[in-house]
Amino acid sequence: MVIAEDSVLLRMGVLRLLADEGIETAAAVENGDDLLGAVTEHRPDLAIVDVRMPPTFTDEGLRAALAARAAVPDLPVLVLSQYVEERYAADLLADGRGGVGYLLKERVADVAEFIDAVHRVARGGTCIDQEVIAQLMARKRRNPVDALTPREREVLGLMAQGLSNVAIARSLVVSDGAVEKHIGNIFTKLGLEPSGEEHRRVRAVLAYLER
């Protein structure tokens, strides 16, 4: 077993819980780099990983878990966190290899439930908190392209074909100004901040293609 948790109290608490159940911990670390080193060295039956760890406390834990699964194929990973980091959680759960769990710390009802999850994931099963599932399903349903009007989606579709503003205006039989207004609305609804017109067009098209 390897534990990756930046809070020393939580790290030692989980270590003690596992020890009380006769589960040996090969390493208990506080950051993603050390997690990767530990799983590569020890090849554990399971890695228990927090999401937010040093240095930025955003998504280092999940990114390290994905890297660990790549470095040690079929490494079981149990994420134990206060947060649902949707993007990387979806990547972790979607690889189809099993041996993965995601529990929210405040929703673990008792020690027996946690230990059961540890054994289940270590055996190659899954254990996903219902709140995690709900948030990931909501993320799947949310697509900013869906907020566009039919005309804006039409404009974006023509952008995806590589048409210029002038060509789009000619195709839709509207003015150049109308096309510029539609494209401005598209950028706003897709949350694309000003960073160069061409760059935003590419990002908008990618959002359209991923829909």
User: Which sheet architecture does the biggest sheet show?
Assistant: 6 strands, parallel
Helix proportion range:
40-55%
Number of helices: 10
Spatial sequence of strands, sheet with the most strands? 2-1-3-4-5-6
Could you give the count of β-strands? 6
CATH class of the largest domain: Alpha Beta
Could you describe the 3D structure shown?
The chain has 2 domains: 2-141, Response regulator (Rossmann fold, 3-Layer(aba) Sandwich); 144-210, Orthogonal Bundle (Arc Repressor Mutant, subunit A). Helix 1 (8-20) links the parallel strand 1 and strand 2. It has 211 residues and is of the alpha/beta class. 55% of the residues lie in helices and 10% in strands. Helix 2 (32-42) packs parallel to helix 3 and helix 8 packs across helix 9. The chain has 10 helices and 6 strands. The longest helix is centred in the last third of the chain and has 14 residues, at 176-189. The protein has a 6-stranded parallel sheet with strand order 2-1-3-4-5-6, with helices on both faces.
Topology:
Elements: E1 2-4, H1 8-20, E2 27-29, H2 32-42, E3 47-49, H3 60-71, E4 77-81, H4 86-93, E5 100-104, H5 111-122, E6 126-128, H6 130-141, H7 150-160, H8 165-172, H9 176-189, H10 197-210
Parallel strand pairs: 1-2, 1-3, 3-4, 4-5, 5-6
Helix pairs in contact: 2-3, 3-4, 7-9, 7-10, 8-9
Write a brief caption for the model:
It is built from ten helices and six strands; from the N terminus they run βαβαβαβαβαβααααα. The chain has 211 residues and is an alpha/beta fold.
